[in-house]
Amino acid sequence: MADRGCALEAVPLPAEVRESLAELELELSEGDITQKGYEKKRAKLLARYIPLIQGVDPSLQAENRIPGPSQTTAAAPKQQKPRPTNSRDERFRSDVHTEAVQAALAKYKERKMPMPSKRRSVLVHSSVETYTPPDTSSASEDEGSLRRPGRLTSTPLQSHSNVEPWLDRVIQGSSTSSSASSTSSHPGGRPAAAPSATAATLTGPVAHAHIGVPVNSRVSSKIQQLLNTLKRPKRPPLKEFFVDDFEELLEVQQPDPNQPKPEGSQTAVLKGEPLAVGTTWPPSLLAALQRWGTTQPKAPCLTALDTAGKAIYTLTYGKLWSRSLKLAYTLLNKLTSKNEPLLKPGDRVALVFPNSDPVMFMVGFYGCLLAELVPVPIEVPLTRKDAGSQQVGFLLGSCGVALALTTDACQKGLPKAQTGEVAAFKGWPPLAWLVIDGKHLTKPPKDWHPPARDAGAGTAYIEYKTSKEGSTVGVTVSHASLLAQCRALTQACGYSEAETLTNVLDFKRDAGLWHGVLTSVMNRMHVVSIPYALMKVNPLSWIQKVCSYKARAALVKSRDMHWSLLAQRGQRDVSLSSLRMLIVADGANPWSISSCDAFLNVFQSRGLRPEVICPCASSPEALTVAIRRPPDLGGPPPRKAVLSMSGLSFGVIRVDTEEKLSVLTVQDVGQVLPGADVCVVKVEGTPYLCKTDEVGEICVNSSATGTAYYGLLGITKSVFETVPVTAGGAPVSDRPFTRTGLLGFIGPDNLVFVVGKLDGLMVVGVRRHNADDIVATALAVEPMKFVYRGRIAVFSVTVLHDDRIVLVAEQRPDASEEDSFQWMSRVLQAIDSIHQVGVYCLALVPANTLPKAPLGGIHISETKQRFLEGMLHPCNVLMCPHTCVTNLPKPRQKQPEVGPASMIVGNLVAGKRIAQASGRELAHLEDSDQARKFLFLPDVLQWRAHTTPDHPLFLLLNAKGTVTSTATCVQLHKRAERVAAALMEKARLSVGDHVALVYPPGVDLIAAFYGCLYCGCVPVTVRPPHPQNLATTLPTVKMIVEVSKSACVLTTQAIMRLLKSKDAAAAVDVRTWPTILDTDDIPKKKVASIFRPPSPDLLAYLDFSVSTTGILAGVKMSHAATSALCRSIKLQCELYPSRQIAICLDPYCGLGFALWCLCSVYSGHQSVLVPPLELESNVSLWLSAVSQYKARVTFCSYSVMEMCTKGLGAQTGVLRTKGVNLSCVRTCMVVAEERPRIALTQSFSKLFKDLGLPARAVSTTFGCRVNVAICLQPNRLGKLAEQGTAGPDPTTVYVDMRALRHDRVRLVERGSPHSLPLTESGKILPGVKVIIAHTETKGPLGDSHLGEIWVSSPHNATGYYTVYGEEALHADHFSARLSFGDTQTIWARTGYLGFLRRTELTDASGERHDALYVVGSLDETLELRGMRYHPIDIETSVVRAHRSIAECAVFTWTNLLVVVVELDGLEQDALDLVALVTNVVLEEHHLVVGVVVIVDPGVIPINSRGEKQRMHLRDGFLADQLDPIYVAYNM
After folding, report:
1. Distance from C-alpha of 141 to C-alpha of 145, rounded to nearest angstrom
2. Model's pTM, two decimal places?
3. What sign does the dihedral 294-297-301-307 (CA atoms) show?
4. Which has the higher per-residue pLDDT, 1433 or 136?
5. Rounded CA separation 1003/1001 (Å)
6. DSSP label at 762?
7. Beta-strand runs (E) in 684-779
């Protein structure tokens, strides 16, 4: 390597010492000896050379300026040179690189990173539980060195005090000190100091970084750390950007004015030497085959080996010729379909041969050429769903392949269908399979000659190529190109007759095919083919074959050299002196240099000459582009370039001098092939020639390149027919060039250098990064040899209009959780430091789970596909969107507040109306005298008991649908009297005392309620505790009883026992219950007189409910408000004594309570009561009841609707046979305190349309704490619509979600981007007035603004009795006044955001209908980036991201967005969701998710109305009570 800073290089060491040292290094890297043993042996070996070395080191030390404690130590005998390049078990490795990475990591001060927490069942090691992860401070403004990686490069690394970041734990415990030196191989190469020496230098954060945190506070402390990390903004505050045209612009990255620009002169076309003339080239390849087959039939052509390395078969030229002829004859004459020959010349034929059978492949290939058929070699499909197999199918289909050739053994191994035929593979065309073993072929007659004329431009064969996106295309190679390629390779490599070549590569394509199957036949060479399976068992096999066959040439990839290094110990007897060329086929990979150097280092002593190593560069389109030649063939001496990584990312070549960290060392790939012209052009846009110091795409013009992509004319033109032009626009040649897909430049001596491939190019912002370079950096971070067999895939995914880098690695099976995160965080730091680019997602998968390419590599495009589909199943994930995503729209900054007056003026000028609306006037309605009579509900009940004693008011159904209890007017009156008597006598209560009613849903509850009113007590309905879940439900009951100051609890015997039970005592203090009375068998008694309230404003009842934000609030309802509520509902829904309605709601609070307990008594209609709990055992109960009682009006909650939709979706047919018919329903109203759930109501309507449910029957209602019924939408159909109070259909509008975030309402067309459907919440009730007010200035708003809904109505609650937890905030909720305009009216603030729209519809009175749209609760909105987000919108996006996401809830915690998802699938798939959730929220909402929590189904708490309790969930998360499957912290 260019600056291999090895202290030992300065002293010439004898070869045997060098070799022993190399052995030692390997033993250590393989873990065969301990660090101590290694150092002992090494010191012994070097004892006599040490004094010489000491003098060299300090200079190196100074030059590299490394930080870290190593500079304080001067223990001479312990010095060690950096390990030579063979010390790792993976492909990419360069010393410079490793050193750079180590030094880069050392620059980072100790940065802590929150480790995700995994559930124990998912964890392998429990040690993680007690370890608080370090926390990466991404926003450290105060740490000068860490601002933006861009500025990192210029700072000299002088800070000596800090310990290398992850070494602290190594340094603290002396037991691990032995490994300290191996982990810190700094460029200077000294081991880290002994623990005692560095103890003094431990600075603050290091010293206490790893104090264990008790398990129970795991999340909390972690989150705390994460917060400290993310508190400070990454960038300075940005200018206001939001303008009214709603262009939410993503930031475009501005080019840095200081970025390097190319300064050289324009390059010229580089011409290769001419193809030699005068040599006796055969006129074609087949002519050569015929010549050797007939004149030298005994000459060996190909030797095949088995997995033990034994030669199993040698194919001679005679055999190859005769068997190819037999095959050609069979193909043309013996295959028919419908009496027509199956194949005609020019048809394509698939060649399906395993890697272990080169002999049959060669026969198949030449047989096709002789028969003028076009062979298409492909991989053997192993399963029906191989990685990329579908794409291969597309290729075969587009090539019109109908026949596949294979061997007997291979055909037996293919997956079979039931018929015994070969199975149809996914995406493949129907194929006929022909086995070409000898016994299946027919010998041609003596006079038969193959038709083959090597037609120059005709296609000879098609080679497949997989593109970056995963699509497979076929590159066609003509006969002329084939011949030219063989000639050029023969000349460049100096091949001669009867030479032996060992080939380790895949012989079906690429260099393996060009050298080992085509050029070899032209020169009558003998190829020894080494199968991949043998290399896996014995990586030395190829070297042994070179030795035993005295091969002159060998064809390998860098990984083969690498593998053989790891296995070469103890093989003293191999010699490579026979080799004159060792062709490294992937020499274009930037990291092949390290394999070449390491290989030479070890095998020079075994006869390998340095000039033998010949890297070459090739591409599927241009075939061989360049190859290094030994000096005897006229090659110049090899060169290396040490290039600045930062320069390369701007496409500029800068030989790096100062910054030793971020460099790429590349070797040349030799000279252009004979007969070819090469030039370098700009990658994007017009193909202008590059400047001399600019990286571009290498283009080749020669007769030996591919000719087209089969069947794809468009991309063929852009790739195979490029015309490079000079800066002035003049074409450089009259012949078109072929683009190679290789990025590089022409160096000194006209040598070609390749720095990357177009396929691996990732453009992040304005800079270009190469996937292979990032892989190399990641692999250099290997303190514990963490990555399994070096299997790492790097690719980019597009999120928010920019490439984002994703790195996926297989981890060693024995790696612990802590190892993983240590490795991941170091990789992030190294990549950030060396490439100055952030990694978006880092995922670790278990060993051997990434999709494999045919010969063992990683199938990158398939890996990417799995990542995007959520099918990768990682075991560890780290996302870093905070640092990578720099093009988010600027945060909105609130203007200095516009005053309410100017708002109004602005609206008037703009012609916008002030947003206000009201229901019908109560004064005009017919029943005002009745309203006076019905002022008090107890009076109404007595009046009904007197006038219509036997009129049934209530029917209660059980799960079987049978009526368990009923109540007529008189029965209810008598039961209420009994309760009143008991309260006065037994409990000795006085007027105005509060009574808690703890009953299951039923008639008892209603009777107890009226009993309280009869004796002047104030009832409080409370949901009874759940016997199976006392611990969580009983405290709520106790809290309501205490907060409401109840003097007595009324209940049933069963619940009374439960309240006093042992289990209850474990949850609450049972001694502090007030008097508990059970009403099951109270004596029949009359009360002396029924209490009559002195004034309608007296308190009638308390309504307690827990809001979705987790606040327990009780509101006071006066007698006047109660009767006004009943009257409004009666008028809106047209309720009369003759009506029957079905109610499936909880009777404990809000509108559910009013409909269940109050309305029937007021209006006299009959209510069929269906407790929602009963639906758990019989889902169809509610709908059956509606059908049976022919209910015109029915009420339900979203949770009931959801149960029906999910539980009965597939059973509508069964219900129809049972006679369920819903055509009687006029209105089905969903009682809710939230934005209408359009998707649910629509799917419900569609599903039950089959049972006769009218299309427009389903509608929604809206109420809240301050007013339980603001909107109800009764629909009228048919004739009824003309009479009286018909309401128009609910209208749906589509609003722009981006505008909504700025509290603006902008209507858009259905289906336009960012559109959000909203449906109106129902028709405003009679007597209710609604206005939209600004949340802060309290001024009225116009139609186009989103604001808080304020309501004024006779049935508003009169105030909070108590708000548990937030008393001060809510004082003005019931008595708010506008700050401008109508300042007299008293309004109640609902706490919900919404807007009003005047619709085109008219209501019965001819007025235009005003629709109220509820968008969401103000308390739940998330203020992020200066904008207002509604959780439901983010949740809707998240649920769509993957089919395993059952439910989702989001909340913020300080400035972090936390997303909790319920996983409906296998636990090991949990981590797939992390990236998908992060992507979708970024794309659709421009927000960065801070924490992703994955939990089991059912963890997200839902209240009785079916609303998510997000704050409850948040508390559970912070207290670490969710038992999550996985918690991912996005850095």
Report:
1. 9
2. 0.78
3. positive
4. 1433
5. 7
6. E
7. 696-701, 708-709, 738-746, 752-757, 761-764, 767-770
